């Protein structure tokens, strides 16, 4: 599981095993860790992708962690649906969003003071049955570096929404204005803009796992394979080009309908009969009609890169 956090890891005290739910609710409550373990649980296989995944491929270059394809992982998360907790406390008609505070905090460049890592969800997404307060990952307690003891899991949204080291949930009657909501994780179209579009759903995307970029292979049949995923709907097709996008072929797609938030595995049998240098490309399509573009939508923070995946291969 890749790791990404804005501040240093925090000491986990006994307080971290209690989760208050407050704000625009009828009955504020504090849920103990053992309370959550005793409630009906949900187990979900979920892809978590950093919004900055593949950032290093943007041109012109942008500042930030220069991820290539490594800021994405899939795992099995177990926890309690957030809606179960909110059903217990009740939600007032004035509720608009739900804010999630993490225990991690620190200073920010060009901003005075200390800041908690905090994010919000619109009420509709917070009440989705698959938005969960997780306490287990791959059948074991969540590893400390991934949010132990409690972490929010928001399927199909970029992973900045899945707040780690969860310490408090607050239902609010307005739009949250924290810096990790209104400064970071916003698609700014240019350096002069002070407003943009919030980063939410993962964009349809794919990676090529084999062959490797700038690798050498012999003539013959090769199984090109990789992964595809989307934050809106399901992946419905993967297409492969072995000539730099001049023509495309449908790949074999292995999806798991019982795990709608996982990635799909695709493969294509490539008959490499002639020597030379080949540009191999992959693109995924989803059920909402989205397809990977030839060029990613550039933005100043370098979020949401999803241009067609490309590797260069020499056949010898």
Please describe what this structure looks like.
This protein has 316 residues and is mostly beta strands. The protein folds into two domains: 14-198, Alpha-Beta Complex (Sulfite Oxidase, Chain A, domain 2), CATH 3.90.420; 205-315, Immunoglobulin-like, CATH 2.60.40. Helices cover 7% and strands 42% of the residues. It is built from four helices and 21 strands. The strands form five sheets. A five-stranded mixed β-sheet has the order 2-1-10-5-6. Strands 3, 4, 7, 8 and 9 form a five-stranded antiparallel β-sheet that branches. The chain has a five-stranded mixed β-sheet with strand order 14-21-20-16-17, with no helix packed on it. The longest helix is centred in the N-terminal third of the chain and has 8 residues, at 82-89. Its cofactor is Mo-molybdopterin. One of its GO terms (molecular function) is molybdopterin cofactor binding. Keywords: Metal-binding, Molybdenum, Oxidoreductase. This is Sulfite oxidase.
């Amino acid at each position: 599981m890749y790791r990404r956090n804005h501040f240093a890891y925090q000491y986990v005290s006994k307080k971290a095993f209690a989760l208050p739910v407050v704000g625009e609710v009828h009955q504020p409550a504090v849920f103990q860790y053992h309370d959550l373990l005793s409630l009906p649980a949900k187990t979900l296989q979920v892809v978590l992708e950093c919004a900055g995944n593949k950032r290093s491929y943007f041109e012109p270059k942008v500042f930030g962690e220069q991820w290539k394809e490594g800021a994405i992982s899939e795992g099995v998360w177990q926890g309690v649906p957030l809606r179960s907790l909110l059903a217990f406390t009740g939600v007032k008609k004035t509720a608009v969003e739900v804010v999630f505070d993490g225990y991690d905090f620190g200073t920010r460049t060009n901003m005075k003071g200390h800041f908690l890592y905090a994010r919000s969800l619109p009420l509709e997404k917070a009440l989705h049955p698959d938005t969960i307060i997780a306490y287990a990952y791959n059948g074991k307690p969540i590893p400390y570096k991934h949010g132990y003891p409690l972490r929010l899991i928001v399927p199909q949204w970029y992973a900045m929404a899945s707040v780690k080291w969860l310490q408090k949930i607050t239902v609010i009657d307005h739009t949250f204005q924290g810096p990790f909501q209104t400064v970071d994780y916003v698609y700014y179209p240019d350096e002069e803009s002070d407003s943009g579009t919030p980063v939410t759903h993962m964009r349809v995307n794919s990676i090529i796992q084999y062959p490797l970029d700038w690798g050498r292979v012999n003539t013959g049949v090769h199984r090109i394979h990789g992964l595809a995923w989307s934050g809106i709907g399901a992946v419905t097709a993967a297409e492969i080009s072995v000539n730099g996008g001049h023509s495309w072929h449908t790949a074999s797609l292995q999806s798991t309908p019982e795990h709608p938030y996982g990635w799909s595995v695709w493969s294509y049998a490539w008959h490499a009969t002639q020597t030379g240098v080949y540009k191999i490309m992959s693109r995924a399509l989803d059920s909402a009609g989205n397809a990977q573009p030839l060029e990613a939508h550039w933005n100043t923070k370098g979020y949401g890169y999803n241009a067609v995946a490309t590797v260069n291969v020499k056949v010898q």
